[in-house]
Automatic annotation (TrEMBL):
Zn(2+) binds at H265, H329. GO terms for molecular function: 4 iron, 4 sulfur cluster binding; phosphomethylpyrimidine synthase activity; zinc ion binding. Keywords: 4Fe-4S, Iron, Iron-sulfur, Lyase, Metal-binding, S-adenosyl-L-methionine, Thiamine biosynthesis, Zinc. Pathway: Cofactor biosynthesis; thiamine diphosphate biosynthesis. GO terms for biological process: thiamine biosynthetic process; thiamine diphosphate biosynthetic process. Residues 466-478 have a biased composition (Acidic residues). This is Phosphomethylpyrimidine synthase. Its EC number is 4.1.99.17. Substrate binds at N68, M97, Y126, H161, S181, R182, G183, D222, S223, L224, R225, E261, Y288. The lineage of its organism: Archaea, Methanobacteriati, Methanobacteriota, Stenosarchaea group, Halobacteria. Gene3D superfamilies: 6.10.250.620, Radical SAM ThiC family, central domain. Its cofactor is [4Fe-4S] cluster.
Amino acid sequence: MARTQLQAARAGVVTPEMDRVAERENRDPEFVREQVAEGQAVIPANVAHDALDPMIIGREFATKVNANIGNSDESSDLETELEKLHAAVHYGADTVMDLGTGSDLDEIRETHVEYSPVPIGTVPLYEAVKRAGSSEEITTELLLEVVEKQAEQGVDYMTIHAGILAEHLPLTDGRKTGIVSRGGSIVAKWMEERGEQNPFFQIFEDLCEIFVEYDVTFSLGDSLRPGCLADACDEAQYAELDTLGELTDVAWDHGVQVMVEGPGHVPMDEVAANVERQQEVCDGAPFYVLGPLVTDVAPGYDHITSAIGAAIAAQAGAAMLCYVTPKEHLGLPEREDVRDGLAAYRIAAHSGDVANGLPGARDWDDALSEARYEFDWREQFRLALDPDRARSFHDQTLPGDNYKEARFCSMCGVEFCSMRIDQDAREAGEMRRLETETDLESSPAADVNLPPVGTHDSSGLAELEKLDEEALEETADD
């Protein structure tokens, strides 16, 4: 009997999850099944995640965005992490990864699964380090125990750092920033101190058996991703990618869904080539990229430096973008950082879909442009990616209700507003009046390419709306 979405798809079965994905993507369910069967798309859907609203990750579908949250020994608690989760869902995250390394990891993870309508991802290695006390004390038995427990808790996908091998480590010696992946550095240290091969690589087929039982999706970690432009596209990065391609085939042979994680820091002119190389090496398995950051000079603005690379990657075929917040390299993100990071990445993902000509993707842009031209301020705010932010910026200088009817904003004022001038000229008969109207109700676009963002079926989450309101009221006030 099929136990995973991949096994069901190969058997010709359209699962309820595939039906829901087809509805959200405005695609035929049979097309969804074919993409999953071929390994070109994944539906992360642990059988124990009861409140999940299924989604799909694949280059033939709308580009998705992941938000990383998580505590540390220095900061954050359950309440704060739950606020981050709700902010992420509200502002449009398609998945959320809990990268916590602090205390109460089990309670936080279980709460996230209980209150999340989007897939939850984790990095089991972090908990293994916490339980072992140090990286060198980790055993393969402990790794399997941690992975199985997290699978039982309902985690939908896990980053597994199985691609970094002992023979890859010397290839990093000439780098400027060495190994910047947290998981990669831990595994590298373990191999150096114990003189053994990567423990995840050793037990990979055992992991596949656990993943099949719960239908957990592999997110094969890029342990040797470049941490600066100078280290991009080097021998170490590509040696690991070749191993990830081999592991993808092993997972598929076991009936396990797979996506592959990608770099890091990459110059703009090499981003597309990275995506193309991954697609070739990993036989089209969905590519899940962090950024990439296209310059290293802007700490505090890396949601921007990385969103540039993310947009290029999306156009080139990356299936999911892992957001970067303004706090990257500087500190643990808080709720407002989550908001800013998601805005940057929703823009990157949508821009990629528009560039790739996905059905209806540009309709949202057209509808907002029409509202802007007509000075329909309330409609502009409603259609905005972040309506509260758009309204707040407008009202900082023109707060009165009468200005919601005004044919100008504070940027140009009355006399120099180009759209008012253009409208007046057309009304006077000097140019033809513009007659356009985009009907978003009939748009063929996927849900994520239509307003509002953060639209998930939360029927299984009785307290979600209440918790969202409490968390987000304070965000809006800020």
